Amino acid sequence: MGRNEPSNQQRLGLRKVVPTEGDTDNTTVDIIAIHGLDTESPRTWTYKKDGSQGVNWLDDRRMLPAAVPSARIYTYDWNAKVFDNAPVQTLLSHADNLLALVAAEHGASNRPILFIASCFGGLVLAEAICRAAQEGSKYRKILQSTIGIVFLATPFFGTDAARPASWLVVVKGIMGKEASNQLIKDLEERHAFVRERVQKFAEIANDSFIRLPIWCFYETRKTKIAKKILPAWISEKWSRGSILVTESSACLHGFHRQRLERKHLMMNKFGDPECRDFILVKEAIHDILEKAPNTLKYKEKSKIARKSIESDTRAATKEQQTRFLQSLRFPSMNERKNDIVGSHSETFRWVFRANSEDLVKFNSGNFSPLESATSDNALKDASKQASAGEPSGLEDKPWYNFEDWLKSDNAIYWINGKLGSGKTTLMKYLIENRLTKESLATWAKDPVILSHFFWKAGSKLQGNIKGCLCTILYQALYLNTTPLNSILTPRNRSLLAKESVTDWSRKELKDVCFAVLRSYPSSVCIFLDGLDEICLEDRSSLIELVETLGAFPNIKVCVSSRPEPHLLSALLKYPHLKLQDLTLNDMREYASAKIQPYVSNGQISKDTGSDITNLLLRKAEGVFLWLRLASDSLVRGLMNNDPTDILYQRLREMPNDLYKLYDDMWSRMNEDTRLYRETAARYFNLAIASQREVMRSISKLRLLHLMAATNHKVQHTFINKGDTINATSLIRECDETVQEIQRRCIGLLEVVPKSGEEAETWDPTRYDTLLPYWEASVQFIHRTAYDFLTDTEGGHRILACDLSSKHERSFQMMKGGLVMKRLIKSYRFPSIHDNIDILSQLAGAIPSTAIDEALRAMWDLYDNGHYVDDTPRPHFLAIAARVLFKKFVLSNIASSPNPSSLATDVLRYKCTPQINRHRDFLDELSYFWEPLLALNADINAKGTCYITNTAYGYTRKSHMSPIGRFLVEIFTRGYSIQEVDARYRQLQRFMDAGPDLQQRIPLFIQISEGVLAVKTDFEEPMVSSVILDVDLAFLVEAYSKRARRRAMPLSIDDSVDQHPREASKTTSPRVVLIRVYKDDYFYQCLSDEAMKQLLALLIQFLYGDQSGDLARKTNQEFKSLGTNIRGSTKFKEAGQTPVLFLAERNLGYCLP
Fold first, then answer.
1. How far apart are alpha carbons 1019 and 1005 in whole angstroms?
2. How far is CA 974 from each of CA 199, 980, 1043, 1055, rounded to the nearest angstrom?
3. Cα(470)–Cα(501) distance, rounded to whole angstroms?
4. pLDDT tens for each residue of 466-502
5. pTM of the entire structure?
6. What is the helix (H) or strand (E) element at residue 1131, kind and residue range?
C-alpha cells in the first residue's frame, strides 16, 4: 500500500493502482506516473468521449497492465492547483516529497523504477533526479534503481512565445483563468534557474555512471486559448491556435524524441490499446525495460552510490571546453565583419527613429504610406500570415519598422537591397549599436547577439552553411559555456574528440548548434548577412536553416541579401525593408561631406556644390557604393583643379551601372600607360589568387605579404641569400605598395589598416614595428568589384594586362609567404604540407633551380621551428619526398651523416599515407622504393610512424617498421582490382627484400551500420570494434588470399607464396581488446575461447569475404558478446587508453 500525505481536497502522495488490493503481486518492476499542473489522478490519465465513463490507461487491464504485466503501477499526486489554497512551497520543492515517498515505499528493496512524467510533473521529476545525484544525498539509491523515464510534453524551456510571455502562455494554456499569477511570476523571474536545472538533469542522465534511457514525447496539434485570458499583445496568435509546448521545448538533446498527433491536454490520455499514440508510448516503455538489466548492471559496477555525479561531470567538461571551442574556430571566422568599414557618422540613424513620419520627411516624400506599414498590429498580422504560408501583405512595402520588430515576438526580418546599397554596412551598424540590444530587451531580458557574414570571395567556410554553424555555435558558447555541461559528456564521445573544423560534419554541427540554441540560457538574436553570397550547393538548404532557427521560441533572425528571385519568393512574406528606398538622407549627408570642403575653401560655389550633390544622388539610385566611387572620382578632379564644366561633364558621363562605372574608371586612369595597367592587374590577380587556391590556408591577404610577393629584391635577400633586411626598409617598401594600390587600382582594392587579429614577430627587438603592416589587409572594396573582374568581359580584359602566368603568380605568393614565416609568428600560415603541395603543383612550370631554392628555404624554416609545430615531427626530406622532388630528396639523403637511418625514416613515412594523400601513396612509394633500398633503408627497423591529424600537428604516432605499416595500410584502402593489383605488386617488392614476418602489430577492425572495415586506428567512438594481435606472416597470407579472391590478373607471379608462413615460429591472431556498440570502454579479453567464434568470422573477412551475410553474422556476434561483457569473468576493462595498453605490450606503439 502506498504511503500518502494527509488528504486535503485531493488524495496527495504515492498511491498504488496496480495490482489492486487482494490481487496476487508477482511484479518485479515499479512504474510511477506523475501528473502536471491543475489536475490529479486518475482524471489526468483518463480518456473520455461523449460522456462515457472514460478509460484510465494506467489501470485499464487492456492497456498498461497488459503491456507490462510485471509492473507495479503507482501514481504520484502533488498539489498542482497552484492558486489561492496552494502550499507555500515552490513548484520544484515537490521533488523532495516525491523522493521521500518513493524511498519510504521502497525501503531496502532494489526494485527497478520507471517514471512517466506529464507536463510540469516532468520538471518536478528532473529536479528530484538532480537532488538525488547530489553528494551525500540519502536518496542516491532511487537514482541507482531508476531504469528510465518517459516525458509527455514537459515544457523544459517554456513555449513558442516571446520570452516574457513564455511561461505565462504555458500556465494560462493549462490552467485557464484560474492560473496562478504567483507561479507565472516565479517562473519568469527564475527562468534562468529552471534552464540551469534542466541542463543539470540532462548532464546527470548523460553521465557515464548513470546512462539513463529517456524518451521525450511532444505534441503536434494546436491548442487554442481564449482571448480574454491572455494580454492583448499575444492573444491573437493563441486564440487561433498554436503548439503549446513545441518539440524544441519538450525534447532534450541526446535522447530519444517522438511526436504524438495530439494537442497538449491529450498527451497523457489514451482511449484503447489500438490507439497509435499509446502504441508508441508502450514501445518506448518496452525499450527501457529491455535495456534495464544492462542499465542496472552497469550502475552497480560503477558504484554510483559512492560517487558525486554532479562534481564528476563538472570536472570532465572543464578540461574539455577549451579544446571543443577551438575545434569550431577557423581563421577567417570574423574576417568579413572586421573588414567592413564603419558607416558615416550620420548614416542609418533612421532605423531607430520610432516615428516613421521622420523617415518620410527625410526621404522627401518618396514613400508616403510608410506609417501604415510600421504599426505593431500590422507587423503581427503579416508575420502570422507568413508563418501560415499565406500572403502577408508585405510584398510591396519598402519598410517595416525595424525597431518595432526587435521589440516584438516576430521571428524573422529581411533587409534587402540592390548591390552596393550598403546592406552589409547596415548589418554591422545594427550589431554594434547599443539601441539594438535596448530594443531587444523589450522582447527578452538580457538578449545575446550572434552574427555571421557570408562572403563569396572569401574562404570556403565563409561561403557555406558549415562555416555559418561553426561561427554561431562558437559565439554562443564563448559567451556562455553552461550548455557545454550537457553536451560534453562521456555519452557524446565523438564530440569530446573534436580538435579542428575538419573533424566536424555539417549534420553534427547542425545537431549540436540546434541543441545549444534550443536550451540556451538567454534569448538570442542572430544576424546573417549576405544570404546571396552562399555557395551554390548550400543554397537550397539556406532558407530551411533560417526558418528553423526562427521557429525556436527564444530566437530571432535578421537576414540581409540582394533581392534575388529565390530569396524574394521565400522571404518577402516576412517583415522587411528595401534599403535603396530608405537611404536618400544618408547619401545626401555623405555626398555633402565630400563636396563641402571645396565649397568652404571657395573652389566651387555653394550652388555648384548643391547641384553636384543632387546630381550624384539622382545617378546613384540608392546605391551607396556607386556614390562613394563617383564622389571619390569627383574629389580627385577637384584636387587636380578641374574647372566646373569638366566636373559636370565627368559626372554626367559616369555610367549608372556599377560594372560600367568600374570599366569607365579603368579607362580614365590607366589607358595610356602599359606599366601602370600591368601593375594594377598584377595586384588584382594576386588578390583573387589569395582567395582561390594559393593561400587557401590564410584568411586574408596581408599588406606585408603582398609587398613580399611582388618585391623580387626582398625575396632574393630572404630566400636566395638567407639574409635579412631591416624593418625600416621593409616599411618603406610597404608604403610604396600602398601608394601604388591607391594610384593604379581605381579604388577597387583598399588597404584596411587593422584586422583586429594579434600576432608577434620572431625577433621583437628588430621587427615589432612591422606588425601594423602584417595586421593591415588588402581586399576588394565590395563583392561587386570581385565579380566584375572575375565574371565580366571588361574585367577579364583588365586582368589580361598582367603578363605573368598563373603558375608564376602562385610561386611569387608562396615565396612571399616564406618571407612572412621568417618575420611573423602565426598559426594562420599554410602548413609545411600545404607549401609542399603548392610547390609540387608548380614544379613543371617553374625552373628547377628556383624550386630547389624554395625547398631549401622551407627546410631551414622547418628545422628552426617557424612552422609553429612543437610536437615531434618527421624529417623534412620525408615530407618533401614527392615524385617531382626525387632528385633533391635523394641527393640530400646521400650526403647526410647517416644515409641508412634517414632513408629508413623516409621509407617508413612513405608507407604511412597522410590525410588527403592516399591517392599518391603507392605511386610515390614505388617511385622511391629502389633508390631508398640502394641507400640501405631497413624495412624491418621499427620507428615512429607520423600520421597528420591537423595542419599543424601529428597524432597517433604508432611505432612500427616500414613493412608493418605498409601491411596495415593495404588492408584499409581500396578494393577495386586495379588497387588490389598495385598493392599486391608492392607487397611482392617487400617480400623480395627479406622481411621479418614474426613481427607482431595491432590490427583495428570495426563494424558500423552493418559494414566491416579495417582501420588504421581506433578512429570512431561508440561503434563495435576489436583490436587484433597479429604477426606479419598472417597478414601476408591473408592479403594473398584476398588478392586472389578479387580475381587478380594472371600476369602476377607467385613470389608472395614463395615465402610460406612458418607456423612453428608464429602464433595465430588473437583478440586483445574489444568494444561493443554504444559502450564507452575497451575491454581486455581474458579467454581466447570466448572470442573463438568472433575471431573465426574476422579471419574470414580478412581473407576477402566482403559478403553481407558475413557482416550480419559478425554483427550478431558482437551483440551477443555485448549483452554479457560487463561483469563477465572472461573480460575486464582495459583501465587505460588503448594506446597505453598496446604500448605496454610493445604492440605497435611505444611509451612516451
1. 10
2. 45, 7, 11, 22
3. 8
4. 999 999 999 999 998 888 877 776 666 678 778 788 8
5. 0.60
6. strand 1131-1133
